[in-house]
Design goal:
Strand order of the largest sheet: 1-2-3-4-5
Number of domains: 1
Helix content: 25-40%
Order of helices and strands: HEEEEEEEE
Largest sheet: 5 strands, antiparallel
Strand content: 25-35%
Shape: rod-shaped
Distance between the termini: 113 Å
Mean pLDDT: 87
Radius of gyration: 29 Å
Number of helices: 1
Structural class: alpha+beta
Number of strands: 8
Length: about 170
């Protein structure tokens, strides 16, 4: 009877094969994780833009419906002024509320004798705004907003175009 002396362990080829298979599995898992993170960022950017856009439009249309009259300056279609009884100081007969672009990228709301309020969050830019008076009591609002993307990364590119019409409520 012959006794063979086998060394227990792995050969170099087996170790290299295991390392190659493990590297492929890790790269597939990492690729999936990177894709999932980018997809989540894209979804969040799109939700931020759509939520902000709808919230802004709702605020503007509610204020138009509550107003007594509409005034759009002829020199600028990016500003809307509303005569409203809701923001009067004691002794005033008429109060105004204005919507306009402030700093060129944000939408602001200014109530009579108060500081302006920015309606757009910090991560949102207004790229287009137009108020068009279509009748003495109706305004068409056109709005395009974008997610801020300073590094121009594709997962943060999101924008929305909204158009709405609002009318004064009859007294």
């Amino acid at each position: 009877m012959k006794i063979q002396n086998y060394k227990k362990g792995f050969t170099l080829i087996e170790v290299l094969t295991y390392v190659a298979v493990l590297a492929m599995i890790i790269s597939v898992v990492l690729s999936f994780l990177i894709w999932a993170i980018k997809s989540n960022n894209k979804t969040e950017a799109m939700l931020d833009v759509s939520d902000s856009g709808y919230r802004i439009m709702e605020t503007i249309t509610q204020e138009i419906r509550r107003a007594k009259s509409i005034y759009t300056p002829t020199s600028s279609t990016t500003q809307l002024s509303l005569e409203t009884p809701h923001y009067l100081s004691p002794g005033e007969e008429t109060g105004y509320i204005d919507f306009y672009l402030c700093e060129g990228v944000s939408l602001c709301l200014k109530k009579e004798s108060r500081d302006p309020i920015t309606l757009t969050p910090n991560n949102i830019n207004v790229s287009y705004l137009e108020f068009m008076q279509i009748a003495t009591s109706s305004v068409r609002i056109s709005l395009e907003i974008n997610h801020k993307n300073p590094r121009n990364r594709s997962e943060y590119q999101a924008s929305i175009n909204l158009i709405s019409t609002a009318s004064l409520r009859p007294n």
